[in-house]
Amino acid sequence: MFDRAKKLAVASTILLAAGPAFAGQGQPVVVYGEPDENIRTVHVSYADLDLATPKGERQLNGRVSGAVKNVCLFGADGPRLQSDGYYDCAGEAWTSATPQMAQAIARAHELALNGKTSIAAAAITISVR
After folding, report:
1. Which residues are within 8 A (CB) of 87 and not within 5 positions of it... i.e. 6 or more apart?
2. 18, 89, 9: which is closest to 43 by C-alpha?
3. DSSP state of 24
4. Which residue of 8, 47, 63, 69 is 20 to 30 Å from 128, comparing CA positions?
5. Entry pTM
6. Domain boundaries, the chain
7. Comparing C-alpha atoms, which of 53, 65, 52 is closest to residue 124?
8. Phi, psi of 124 (to 5 degrees)
9. pLDDT tens figures, 50-108
10. How many CA atoms within 13 Å lie on the side-chain side of 39?
């Protein structure tokens, strides 16, 4: 069952991927949402990485790993690395990040092969409760 954070993350990913489809139509895409102070979010930039190489992929994996630890390590009640709460959180974060990483890597390979890509560039967003 999707909670509000997952729905927002999925909707954001879809809108980022669909952005080029709306380009040139002159129609702005507006997303409304209520801030939720219980959601921790980290954006992982990969603009400086060459994701068409194994080294770039490893570097991206390391950044996402650090971001997962960053958002999941501390809960409202303090550190939870050794608790099930951390592992549940990390599992959800990786489930969200993995398709975003795959899309970023696919974009890099398409760009390297063709000199252009139809896949929109975006940062990887990890949001958890």
Report:
1. none
2. 9
3. T
4. 47
5. 0.65
6. 4-128
7. 65
8. -85, 130
9. 999 999 999 999 999 999 988 888 655 555 666 667 888 899 999 999 999 999 999 99
10. 18
